[in-house]
Write a structure and sequence with these properties.
The complex is a heterodimer of chains A (225) and B (105).
Chain A (H helix, E strand, L loop, with lengths): L9 H63 L2 H7 L7 E10 L2 E10 L17 H93 L5
Chain B lengths: L2 E6 L1 H9 L3 E4 L3 H13 L2 E7 H6 L1 H5 L8 E5 L8 H14 L8
The chains are: A mainly alpha (225), B alpha/beta (105).
Chain lengths: 225, 105
């Protein structure tokens, strides 16, 4: 792993050490975030798949009822029967925070609350297949909303997990090793220069002591000067 | 106040009008893409779209993947169910996990 391009000074060393502490802490937190997101994501996705299967099946059923109704009634009659809907749905969106991901929560209000009051046409000129189809769709609406909620949450969480996973990997495999290597490099350089100044000092001391000894001997007349 | 839209060919979506959703008909890619764009700007929070159109406009729809305000959800139309919806869910799993670990259930 590449060592960062920094000066091997004590100031740089303490700066890097601080960064390493932050990076390690961040790594731990992000890893926890990723794990928890993943756990919740898998729950949502399982629910999502289940719901989707049910909803798709029911829509296909409702559609087949429509086809049946269309086959016994004139196309225009079906069209005009459904032209002016009685029911109106309005939507409120709230956002729930799941591990820093904002996921939507849908709350609907319907104009008519009576489930039998959804048919926008008189029953005299239409066939019961149309009633079945409309009833099934109306029945399906809460599930359809829940499906939208689940699917959007899954999408949002998936991209957040992807981002978090990249961050964790970048910290784990790039940032932290790089900082560790650089810290090691600076420590070794500093140690090395300390050793070299130590030996230099020892050498100088030796020389001074030798000189002193010589001077002492000369003074005492032990050596012929 | 937000709204719910359904986009699809006339036969697929007519039933949703009866249950009170806002229905828009589109038969080809261009109309559908234009509709999605304008609906997203006009307070529609959920857009249900038939699977056939969903696969045609996949590029346009992907732009909403990371926006929390608009959910574009594929539903089967009169042409039946071609599995786009499910594979869309699997795509999320693949994105998050790296591979589709839930493909069996």
């Amino acid at each position: 792993m590449a060592v960062m391009n920094v000066n091997p000074t004590r100031m740089e060393l303490s700066r890097l050490k601080k960064r390493l502490v932050t990076a390690t802490r961040g790594h731990k937190l992000l890893k926890d975030k990723r794990d928890e997101l993943m756990r919740q994501f898998l729950n949502i996705v399982k629910e999502n798949k289940q719901l989707r299967r049910e909803v798709e099946q029911k829509i296909v059923q409702a559609n087949s009822h429509f086809v049946l109704a269309g086959s016994v009634m004139q196309h225009e009659v079906v069209g005009s029967a459904l032209l002016a809907p009685k029911q109106e749905v309005s939507l409120e969106v709230e956002y729930k925070n799941v591990m820093s991901v904002e996921v939507p929560k849908y709350i609907t209000k319907t104009k008519t609350s009576d489930p039998a009051d959804i048919y926008s046409y008189g029953l005299a000129y239409t066939y019961s297949d149309l009633d079945d189809a409309v009833y099934q769709l109306a029945d399906l609406l809460p599930e359809l909303l829940h499906l939208a909620e689940c699917e959007k949450s899954a999408q949002l969480m998936a991209s957040e997990i992807e981002k978090t996973r990249r961050r964790v990997n970048a910290l784990e495999h790039v940032m932290i090793p790089q900082l560790q290597e650089t810290i090691k490099m600076i420590t070794m350089k500093l140690d090395e220069s300390e050793r070299s100044s130590q030996t230099r000092l020892m050498k100088v001391k030796d020389m001074m002591v030798e000189k002193q000894i010589m001077e002492n001997r000369a003074r005492d007349g032990l050596v012929d000067a | 106040m937000k709204k719910i839209a359904v986009i699809g060919n006339a036969d697929s979506v007519k039933g949703f009008r009866a249950v009170g959703l806002d229905v828009f008909t589109a038969d080809d890619k261009e109309t559908a893409e234009k509709l999605i764009k304008s609906l997203a700007d006009n307070d529609f929070s959920i857009i249900y779209i038939t699977e056939r159109l969903f696969s045609l406009c996949a590029n346009e729809i992907q732009k909403f993947d990371e926006k929390k305000e608009v959910a574009v959800i594929p539903i089967p139309g009169t042409f039946g169910n071609n599995g786009i919806g499910m594979s869309n869910v699997s795509r999320s799993v693949e994105k998050a996990v790296g591979s589709d670990i839930l493909s069996n259930d």
